[in-house]
Amino acid sequence: QGLDFSTIASIKLCQEGPTRVDPIANFKDAGLHPAMLRNVELAGYEVPTPIQRYCLPAIFLGHDVIGIAQTGSGKTGAYLIPILSKLMGKAKKLAAPRPNPATFQEGVDQPMRAEPLVVVVVPTRELAVQIFNEARKFCYRTMLRPCVVYGGGAARDQEQQLQKGCDVLIATPGRLVHFMEKPQVLTLRRVRYMVIDEADELLDDDWKEQLDKIMSGGEQEEGNLNYMLFSATFPKAARELAKTHLAETHVRLRVGRAG
Ligand code: ADP
Ligand code: MG
Questions:
Q1: What's the gap in Å between 111 CA and the centre of ligand 1?
Q2: How far apart are CA 203 and CA 168, in angstroms?
Q3: pLDDT (tens digit per residue) in 51-77
Q4: Closest-approaching ligand to the CA atom of 127
Q5: Is any atom of ligand 1 closer than 6 Å to the C-beta of 50?
Q6: Distance 79 CA to ligand 1 centre (A)
Q7: Taken in order 257, 65, 87, 116, is the CA torsion positive or negative?
Q8: From 12's CA, which of 25, 41, 107, 111 has a CA 20 to 30 Å away?
Q9: Where is the DEAD-box RNA helicase Q domain (predicted)?
Q10: Cβ within 8 Å of residue 212, ≥6 positions away
């Protein structure tokens, strides 16, 4: 299901952060990788939503981003489209060596650990699966391989998926920390983009400690790791998380209905 664009038209966006960007008007002029532009068209996206108009250039320019916007405003695409597009040109160089999924034989080929370039953390299994499905659409016919792990799913199956190689990992926090403690299965040392989606819900549910652990788990040479924080509201706990981990020069976008 798509968005109701009469609703979208009434949505206003303001830039609040220390850094400002010029919005794009359409996907064609956004400087997307050709494979991503095709996948955006295949997804039926014709016009970028307000948060996408600002978020795409912000991420392309290499900024950390805080996006405060209600459900249905297109936040998933706002971060997945530019992040995955940027990686499409560089995946060969950045990604870890991995087995070919088409020829991988269970029990014969050596399993490898997952060394994702992108980690998206979400509060629920349903959301994780939903974002995983979006990621699959955007990664279609590219080198990038998405993977999803969540609490309640069989950890053994998820481990096997991870060990076939994973570039884009969508995860709930508890299960992610579980796998971070198994370095033969997962390492965050290659992560370039770390996204905390629905941050307010995560913090409501007391995942603060795990989030700090996850966000510090990908620490590498300065400037190599971008943090994104998306949320419907921006409570104190979310502001603190942002202050600890995001660059001071981040872009902050807030979307709200006019009137
Ligand atoms: P949010 O995370 O802000 O709640 P989503 O990213 O889940 O919003 O998007 C809501 C719905 O709108 C999804 O079905 C998504 O595929 C669709 N959508 C997002 N951006 C666009 C767009 N530019 N054009 C058409 N549909 C879109
Ligand atoms: Mg969302």
A1: 35
A2: 23
A3: 999 999 999 999 999 999 988 899 999
A4: 2
A5: no
A6: 11
A7: negative
A8: 41
A9: 25-53
A10: 241, 244
Q: Which of 109, 134, 108 minimizes the C-alpha distance to 120?
A: 134
State pTM to two decimals.
Answer: 0.92
Pocket mutation for ligand 1, best pick of 5, 51, 54, 76 (most atoms within 8 Å of C-beta): 76
Instruction: Scan for tokens 């996907």, then name that residue.
Output: 27
Cβ–ligand 1 contact at 76 (below 6 Å)? yes
State the distance from the centre of ligand 2 to the C-alpha of 209, rounded, in angstroms. 22
**Distance (Å, rounded) from C-alpha 130 to C-alpha 77?**
12
> Does 110 sit in the ligand 1 pocket, CB within 6 Å?
no
Nearest protein CA to atom 2 of ligand 1, as residue: 75
What phi and psi, each to the nearest 5 degrees, are found at residue 146?
A: -85, 155
Q: How far is it, in rounded angstroms, from Cα 36 to Cα 124?
A: 27
ipTM score of complex: 0.98
**Pairing state between β 193-196 and 118-121:** parallel
Which residue puts its alpha carbon closest to atom 23 of ligand 1? Answer: 48
- Cβ of 74 below 6 Å from ligand 1: yes
Long-range CB contacts (within 8 A, 24+) of 99-105:
99/164, 99/165, 101/145, 101/164, 101/165, 104/164
Strands 118-121 and 168-171, sheet pairing: parallel
Phi, psi of 30 (to 5 degrees): -85, -5
Distance CA 183, CA 193 (A): 19
Question: Using CA atoms, how far apart are residues 119 and 122, in angstroms rounded to an integer?
Answer: 10
- Which helix (H) or strand (E) element contains residue 10? none
Please tell me which of 21-25, 135-139, 164-168 the model is most confident about, judged by mean pLDDT.
135-139
